[in-house]
Amino acid sequence: MRDSRPPLTAEEAVRLIQPGQRVFVGSACATPRALLRALEELPVPTPGVTLVHGLTDRVGIGDPPSTSYRHRVFYNGSDVRDLADTGLVDYVPISLADVPALFVDGHLPLDVALVQVAPPDDDGTFSLGVSVDITRAAVMAATTVIAEINPAMPRTRGGSSVPADRIDYAVEVDTPITEYVHEPVTDAAEKIARYVARLVDDHATIQVGLGRVPHEMLRHLRHRRDLSVHSDVITDAVVDLVDAGVVTGPVVGSWAMGTRRLYERLATDERFSLHPIEYICDPEVIGRHDRMVSVTQAFTMDLTGQACTERLDGRLYGGISTGPNFHRGALAATRGVPVVCLTSRTPTGKPAFRIELGPREPVGLGRWLARWVVTEYGTAYLFGRSLEERAIELIGIAHPDDREALLDEARERKYVRPDQRLRSRSAYPVDEERELELRDGRKVLVRPTLASDRDQMHELFYRLPEKDVATRFFNRLTSLTDQAADHLCNVDYDEEMAFAAVVGPPESQQIVATSSYYRDPRDSYAEVAYMVDPAWQGSGLATALHARTVEYARGHGVRGLTADVLMSNPAMLKVFRRGIGHELRMDADAGVYEIRMRFIDETE
Fold it and tell me: Angle at which helices 541-555 and 570-578 pack, to 10 degrees?
């Protein structure tokens, strides 16, 4: 410590702060609580002082909290949200990665920094412990640094070190490090987390982020292998994955928010390290990670893909934070997966999807950056999609009660065709996806179709030879109308159902076969039909797709299937004859077999 000055009490230290000074406050679970409390409890508040900070453990005193000072904040978290109506909180919309430059380059000079550190090591170097983030830049730039020295603070690896000569005054404290436990997630958030987890492959590098959805997503990764972490924040759920053998690579972050278990791991496990935010959030650094997965929490989105990440139900909430940097880094990564997640409705029940964002809903991510969008009703992929395709994808994952109104507005804006319809009023049934290995060794994913599969239906149709078109449509069609293609994939997942067998990565899947059925309400039988790409015929795909269709139909109250098959189509007849779980009746009439497949009750 500079000049070997003796320790001060917190009350003595805060009296060094002069009128009109800018005072940085350390972040998150390393907030210097004793110094802040002493500052607020001064008999006469120091006039003109501005506290500069990101997310803290707590500012102000009392319940509800009150403060005697102005706050210039880079994140509008729960620590200052109750002070919003006092007029004492000034929010700066800025990426956290750009904040250090404000301090270092003199755009926002700091007179004093109040921080919490671990005791010095043998050479006198201090560690910022669980919060390096923007704090290290503040310590290096401030004219005066006052530090709480806490033996409970773990010494952390990476970029957390502070030279002894940067600490001007010390205040000795011995209190537990603030612990943070995420609140339980809602059902909607839990569903979103499961959808997001499905986008994480083995060997991926993941960002955790501050929100409950990214944190919950980690709980659904127990069956992945060889993951790494490059994240702004590290939480206890990361330790769970390390202990489970799921995370085997480095765990790199900028600050930690969790329990003593996490903090002890930071001190003892060489895989864990914390670094300044400008390094962690550098898109070039992030982009070096293969399969980088970033998860950004948004609050509202328009039907073109523009996302608002700073305002919720008319109030400032959170901030720009680190989302855009991680999103751009994932975009730059090989096989990167940048995800935006949001609930389909805000806490006050308003639709999260809009035809356009409101004047007080700033765009945090432009529509050109949008890739994966996830709600509790499913997943949409927007890259390379037209305005019409984007609107259909996003309406399909909006709240079911909001879809028709959104579709009306999309028609009015001419984002979609006048005759566009959406039949589904439920969540995409992700649990109905199946990966199948065919008898020739090739693998396909059989999944429920989406309204946005229309163009893929066109492409499959045009790959069919003329004879296959005739046997499928009982007509020598030379083209497939938009309405017909829409009919093949835009279903309600109950009275009607369609499956697509797809190959390729999720963002560029190719449909190689389809099945569809439409239930007749009169007798609860469903008419079924299939299309199979010529390159996949003879592989057993049609048989596998038929078995999957039968399985789903039986589980949804269908009594059996019907089909009309040309006598000149022996391959399809063979598929039906091989079918398991139904008895077959075939009636011949004018070159056509009228087939009726009654599902056999397991008790029969």
Answer: 50
Q: In whole angstroms, give the CA distance from residue 288 to residue 267.
A: 26
Question: Could you tell me the fold of the domain covering 187-412?
Answer: Glutaconate Coenzyme A-transferase (3.40.1080)
The helix/strand/coil state of 533 is coil
Q: Do domains 2-172 and 187-412 have the same CATH topology?
A: yes
Q: Which CATH class is domain 2-172?
A: alpha beta
pTM of the predicted model as reported, rounded to 2 decimal places: 0.88
Instruction: Give one DSSP letter per residue of 191-239, joined into a string.
Output: HHHHHHHTTPPTT-EE---SSHHHHHHGGG-TT--SEEEE-SEE-HHHH
Name residue 365's beta-bridge partners. 307
Give the β-pairing of 315-316 and 311-312: antiparallel
Cβ within 8 Å of residue 175, ≥6 positions away: 33, 34, 150, 152
pLDDT surpasses 60 at 603: no
Give the pLDDT band (50/70/90) at residue 473. Answer: low
Taking only the tens place, the pLDDT of each residue in 477-519 is 667 788 888 888 999 998 899 999 999 988 889 999 999 999 9
In degrees and rounded to multiples of 5, residue 170 shows phi and psi of -120, 145
Residues linked to residue 11 through DSSP beta bridges, in sequence order: none
Residue 212 has phi, psi (to 5 degrees) of -70, -30
Three-class SS state of 290: coil
3-state secondary structure 527-589: EEEEEECHHHCCCCHHHHHHHHHHHHHHHCCCCEEEEEEECCCHHHHHHHHHCCCEEEEEEEE
Which superfamily, per CATH, for 434-599?
Gcn5-related N-acetyltransferase (GNAT) (3.40.630.30)
